[in-house]
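User: What would this chain look like folded?
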Amino acid sequence: MCEDGAGLTTTAELRRSGLSPSAIAAAARAGAISRVRRGTYATRGACAPVRDAARHGGVLGCVSAARHLGLWTLDVGADIHVWMRADGHRLPHDGCRCLDHWDAAPAPGRLAPASVPRVLRQIWLCRGVEEFFVAVESALHLGMLTPAGRAWLRRTCGDAARAALDFAGPHSESGLESLLRWRLRGTGVSMRAQVEITSVGRVDFLIGDRIILEADGAEHHASPAARHRDLVRDANAAAWGYVTLRVDYAMIVHDWDTVVAALRGLLDAGIHCDRA
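Assistant: Here's the prediction, encoded as structure tokens.
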């Protein structure tokens, strides 16, 4: 993430701000700006992905832009997705791992970042509807997708994406929760998110009446103190007749069959039904 106020600028923009060529050169020597390619500068505090996208000939796009904005995405490795300029050319550079996006390319000469709706549409086109849904829910949760932006997506995306938009809501607090919601839709079993349970607190999902499903992200559950807290919660849940199933990132993303088998076993045993 870039520091506040940091980003990209062009020689033309610097000149319009009143800087002479000698003043621009002096700013570069002082480290206030740095040249990333001909006619384009990064201001102090601009992060490496933003600089690499500019060096390649565009600005961050797709999942790279989403991650830069703070939206939840799956791990996409070292690739940098770049929204290319309408009048530009791809400029391979040392260590280039850039993937080009040319959809409705930004106006010639502009270095403005892609809008949130544009980023989400690129994710749909590039990564598919599941990752699109996760990013949409993240944007809704963070208040970054307006009704107008959602309407624009409905007009410009396909039927599968429109179905995902209809299903999406603002209440998932992590991408793992969104993945679970998406993959478990249509099971025929009631599934409620962010439910308050006596002596337990708020849980990620309640399936039926008795199954608590928790999506454990490593950032909140890895420490010994967090592990102890989870065990106490699970014990309190059991005291009230609930069964807790915990799944983590690796299980959800890479071992989904095990998650389904575990949940199916609980459902087949009738544990989700209220026995009172």
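The longest strand covers residues 191-197. If you want, I can go into more detail on any region.
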